[in-house]
Amino acid sequence: MANIKSAIKRAKTNEVRRAHNSAQKSAMRTSVKKFLVAVDQQEKEQAAVLLKEASRSLDKAVTKGLIHKNAAARKKSRLSSKYNALNA
């Protein structure tokens, strides 16, 4: 455990940020999984709404620094290609 006052504060803030980041990342993964489930069940209308939500959550994760922008772009591209295959 840290002994210096600033190190104690840093440890506390790191723990708070870690919890917040993991919650945000979990919400992002959940939105992506909901979309994938809708695609598997051939629900076109639901998939359209969930694709928009998943893309938004990926973009938010990039702005928060949770994932890299290229990773988000790759995931969004794969999700949209699944959606396009569903509608084809």
Automatic annotation (TrEMBL):
List, alphabetically, the GO terms of the cellular component aspect.
Answer: cytosol; small ribosomal subunit
Q: Do the record's keywords include RNA-binding?
A: yes
Q: Does the keyword Ribosomal protein apply?
A: yes
Pfam families, sorted: Ribosomal_S20p
Keyword tags: Ribonucleoprotein, Ribosomal protein, RNA-binding, rRNA-binding
Q: Name one GO biological process term.
A: translation
MF terms from GO for this chain are: small ribosomal subunit rRNA binding; structural constituent of ribosome
Superkingdom, taxonomy of origin: Bacteria
Region of interest: Disordered? 1-27
Family statement drawn from the similarity comment of this UniProt entry: Belongs to the bacterial ribosomal protein bS20 family.
Which function does this protein serve? Answer: Binds directly to 16S ribosomal RNA.
* NCBIfam families registered for this protein in UniProt: S20
Q: What is this protein called?
A: Small ribosomal subunit protein bS20
Which species is listed as the source? Answer: Hazenella coriacea
